[in-house]
Design goal:
alpha+beta, Structural Genomics Hypothetical 15.5 Kd Protein In mrcA-pckA Intergenic Region, Chain A, 2 domains, nine-stranded mixed β-sheet, elongated
């Protein structure tokens, strides 16, 4: 509500409102929309004020934001305490810069809880947008806290399948190299960093191919982009991971990295849980091409 002072007598309505609303253009837009009333009646923008009137301005309703479909997911396991999601590639786990909407935790709103960050309720560990596979979440604070402790104590097994360029010199090995934000490429993680944090990755050859190797990778720690950065560091980047030096062969449009196995002790029941996820079709197709096979039949 705006009271018109006596000294404003003789001013046009839109001119008088301009400093109150920010710009004359905005004042004219609201007047033309019938959202400005002078002593209870709408007036045109050229209306001349006499002084002493009362002006009421209604703001334009905000335009509705375009609908964003819920993130797709499959439930691999669920009980009253926790659940394991089989996440497709392309799905962002929680809101962040550039991904404010359409995330997994938003699709699960009301079903996930726990943790101090309101942007990622119930999330025990994360997967990159273009990494598919098993993801552990909590239904409540107590379960989330217990699973976070188990993760810190390295009591949760997280295994991935990664198709990498070339072949490591040993059948199995451990990469123990601290990681942090790269000094030169700030979107990447590497050992060339000013803020190194301990990072340990174990790998074992699952299948040796002519040009590539299918590795089974187990995380001991869980740094951002840890597997991708560590495999690049030993000269065997993940196929399709162009951000970390991988070649995009066999029609891959994302990194060949899949969270294939998750094993842990249930924090409430003490039961041993083990979940597995098969390779999704795009990775299975790329693997067939890498091995020289056609679907269901050797070449």
């Amino acid at each position: 509500m705006i009271e018109v002072p006596a000294e404003a007598a003789g001013e046009r309505l839109d001119v008088f409102l301009a400093p109150h609303l920010g710009t004359r253009a905005k004042a004219q837009k609201l007047i033309d929309a019938g959202l400005v009333r002078v002593d209870g009646a709408p007036k045109p923008k050229r209306h001349v004020l006499g002084g002493g009137e009362t002006i009421v301005v209604e703001e334009l309703a905000a335009a509705p934001r375009p609908a964003v479909p819920d993130a797709p997911y499959t439930i691999a396991y669920e009980d009253e305490h926790l659940f394991v999601i089989d996440k497709p590639a392309g799905v962002v786990v929680h809101p962040g810069r550039g991904h404010e909407r359409g995330t997994l935790v938003q699709a699960l709103a009301g079903r996930v809880a726990g943790g101090e960050d309101p942007e990622r309720p119930g999330v025990v560990h994360r997967l990159d947008r273009d990494t598919s596979g098993l993801l552990l979440l909590a239904h409540d604070d107590a379960t989330h806290a217990a699973l976070q402790r188990a993760l810190r104590d390295r009591e949760i097994t997280r295994e991935y399948l990664a198709l990498v360029d070339g072949r490591p010199p040993a059948r199995r090995g451990t990469i123990d190299a601290p990681l942090g934000r790269d000094r030169r490429v700030r979107t990447r993680m590497s050992s060339d960093t000013d803020d190194p944090r301990a990072a340990i990755t174990h790998f074992e050859i699952e299948r040796a191919l002519a040009r590539e190797t299918l590795l089974r990778v187990r995380l001991e720690t869980g740094r951002t982009h840890q597997i991708r950065a560590h495999l690049l560091a030993i000269g065997h980047p993940v196929l399709g991971d162009t951000e970390y030096g991988g070649h995009a062969r066999y029609g891959l449009t994302r990194q060949f990295l899949h969270a294939a196995r998750l094993a842990f002790t249930h924090p409430a029941t003490g039961a041993a849980l083990e979940l597995t996820s098969p390779l999704p079709e795009d990775l299975e197709r790329a693997l067939r091409q890498a091995t020289g096979e056609r679907a269901g039949q050797p070449a």
